[in-house]
């Protein structure tokens, strides 16, 4: 496989944005760090397995980059399912170990279903019967599977180990304590959507339609080898 650089500036910026979003959402450094830690561990194991296959198999250079980006995104997303339910059970008075177990048992089904959907979609690229698309899809699907396993195994262990520290190191101005529900602008937006579901739906569809206008002039195709143009030799000076 050709050398490829993963973990460049784009991925670092993406992780930084994820940290900010998680910090605003949960309002705690510990709660924001656990999903990121679980996702990074899952992506690390998945990428290690992918690179281990570069010996017997031919993997194009863009496959690890795609697998890294998708694996990191879904790893954080799936960890949020379990963490949010875990914080709800903690607020209800359960012990951290029981809360982590029950969160995995309830939100784990959603994680498995969502992960299976992504894996099937990525593996479906093989239907196109284009070799590089097949390699990219299967590589990303493998990393997604590892991310799902990390969310169902590693994250509950981290939650049980952290105990009630998931609410510590709160950040000023961010989300409240676990179990308090949405507040401020999030609560106002939720109430607006519930009161006016049809106008909000129409506005969302209109916005998506405006964003999709450039697709009307989209031309799809694959690069095809063409005749090479030879450069004529330089003219000789007259003798």
Topology overview:
Elements: H1 9-26, H2 29-52, H3 62-91, H4 96-123, H5 131-162, H6 185-195, H7 197-211
- Which structural class is indicated by helix and strand composition? mainly alpha
Number of strands: 0
Query: So how many helices?
Result: 7
Any idea what the CATH architecture of the largest domain is?
A: Up-down Bundle
- Rg value: 24 Å
- Coarse shape: globular
> Taking all residues together, what is the mean pLDDT?
79
Fourth CATH level, the homologous superfamily of the largest domain: Multidrug efflux transporter AcrB transmembrane domain
Tell me roughly what share of residues is in helical segments: 55-70%
Output the helix-strand order: HHHHHHH
Total individual domains: 2
> How large is the share of residues in beta strands?
under 5%
Main β-sheet description? none
Q: Which regions contain 5 or more consecutive residues with pLDDT less than 50? A: 1-5, 171-180
CATH fold type of the largest domain: Multidrug efflux transporter AcrB transmembrane fold
End-to-end CA span: 52 Å
- CATH level 1 name of the largest domain: Mainly Alpha
């Amino acid at each position: 496989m050709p050398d490829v650089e993963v973990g460049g500036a784009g991925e670092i910026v993406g992780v930084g944005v994820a940290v900010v979003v998680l910090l605003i959402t949960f309002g705690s450094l510990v709660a924001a760090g656990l999903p990121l830690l679980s996702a990074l561990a899952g992506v690390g194991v998945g990428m290690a397995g992918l690179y281990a296959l570069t010996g017997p198999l031919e993997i194009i250079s863009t496959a690890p980059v795609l697998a890294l980006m998708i694996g990191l995104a879904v790893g954080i997303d799936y960890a949020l399912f379990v963490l949010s339910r875990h914080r709800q059970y903690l607020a209800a008075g359960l012990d951290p170990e029981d809360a982590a177990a029950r969160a995995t048992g309830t939100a784990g089904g959603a994680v498995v279903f969502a992960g299976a959907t992504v894996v099937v979609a990525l593996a479906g690229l093989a239907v196109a019967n284009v070799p590089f698309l097949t390699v990219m899809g299967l590589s990303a699907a493998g990393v997604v599977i590892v991310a799902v396993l990390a969310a169902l195994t590693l994250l509950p262990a981290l939650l049980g180990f952290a105990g009630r520290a998931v609410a510590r190191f709160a950040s000023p101005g961010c989300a409240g304590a676990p179990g308090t529900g949405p507040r401020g602008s999030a609560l106002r937006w939720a109430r607006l959507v519930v009161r006016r579901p049809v106008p909000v739906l129409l506005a969302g569809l209109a916005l998506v339609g405006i964003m999709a206008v450039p697709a009307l002039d989209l031309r799809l195709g694959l690069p095809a080898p063409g005749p090479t143009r030879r450069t004529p030799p330089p003219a000789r000076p007259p003798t």
